[in-house]
């Protein structure tokens, strides 16, 4: 169910609700570039999201970040500002405490809201997400996705133009594996679900413009505005050893710096495969905290 919430400054915050409202609410922060529709990706692999949520007794609140999907662009937006926006939405929805689940680029946002609103966020679960800024050493170790972020930082106009062209085109097939830089375990899922993936993530993120997505891509180079060591809640971090999109350094940052880190390493899983293959297990873990 797609909805929008009007923030005090007049901006719209888009969100989608999944599951039964009487169940435990859980925030969901999507990857980048992506949207509130991201959980529907599971349907492309014959996984019934509503059934998984029913079993786990969870109610997902998936939110578009500024400039993506139904949410208004915020030129001053960052991780902390978004946390404040979400806090207002939860007040509106009558949610006083809940866990947060994030995939990939949603990682810093989940950590930011946990840090700034510790009474609101009971626990954090991150599926192969960013947890540290893109310093030079981090960027050099990234796979081919580093070129997307480099374009965002150094030639944002070029990336915006390219993404605005792509969002208007019909995606018929996936690019060759060597271009994506994905390991086979991820490429197989990517290739088979390319039409759904493109529609629910990049195309929906850029439904009005690529400005929000590019602004966000640049933000990962900035200081996140908090220290991992200051986060008090349990942080569950899921990472697959075959992941070439989010490197191991992000998992190690959580393992070494977060006081209550719980690591879930999965052998031979990739960035997409761990999301598809472990989502039921992730929801089950969320329902226990």
UniProtKB/TrEMBL annotation:
Annotated AB hydrolase-1 domain residues: 48-272
InterPro entries: AB_hydrolase_1 (IPR000073), AB_hydrolase_fold (IPR029058)
Superkingdom of the source species: Bacteria
Pfam families recorded: Abhydrolase_1
Name of the molecule in the record: AB hydrolase-1 domain-containing protein
The organism of origin for this protein: Flavisolibacter tropicus
